[in-house]
Amino acid sequence: MSHPLELFHFCPKCGSPHFVEHNGKSKCCEDCGFTYYFNPSAATVALIENEKGEWCVVRRAKEPAKGTLDLPGGFSDCYETSEEGVRREVREETGLEVSEVEFLFSIPNLYEYSGFTVHTIDMFYRCRLLGNVLDAHAADDAAELLWIHPSRLNPEDFGLRSIRKGVERLLNKGAF
Questions:
Q1: I need a surface site. Which of 52, 110, 138, 142 has the fewest CB within 10 A?
Q2: Taking a C-beta distance cutoff of 8 angstroms, is the pair 48, 55 a contact?
Q3: Nearest Cα to 125, choosing from 158, 68, 81?
Q4: 166 near 123, Cβ under 8 Å?
Q5: pLDDT tens string 142-151
Q6: Which residues pair with 122 in a beta bridge?
Q7: Domain ranges of the chain
Q8: CATH superfamily label, 41-173
Q9: Which helix (H) or strand (E) holds 116?
């Protein structure tokens, strides 16, 4: 697989076409001297359990992997921490408010978006909720919200590779 920097032909700082490979991770502009390192985007994944031991699972409303299962989460925005990002994503996709987040692990991922491969680091968090889970509803990128006991989950039903791998890891370790 080619490196994503191969798609970048112009310096993002001055617009020069003299934007050349600097090393395996960066390109440098021969005109202004700017060096750009291509790094993965930060993404979050929320693992939420209700009082019955069921996990909050959503069905993806959009591509990639539209219609498959997912865990709430998404990209972190500029100027927010990963913890703030997972709280915001849970609120946007489920209407639920997160009171506590605990980092569990991370998985590198390739996320296809608009014909471009976005390299991500998907950070998995155990999330505790404020309020009642009965207030949950699907919104934003989620077409449906489900509460499913882990014993009934099949990792193959999750359309995104990193989520599938994360669910497998959680089911094998008994994360909750």
A1: 52
A2: yes
A3: 81
A4: no
A5: 899 999 999 9
A6: 43, 107
A7: 4-37, 41-173
A8: Nucleoside Triphosphate Pyrophosphohydrolase (3.90.79.10)
A9: strand 116-130
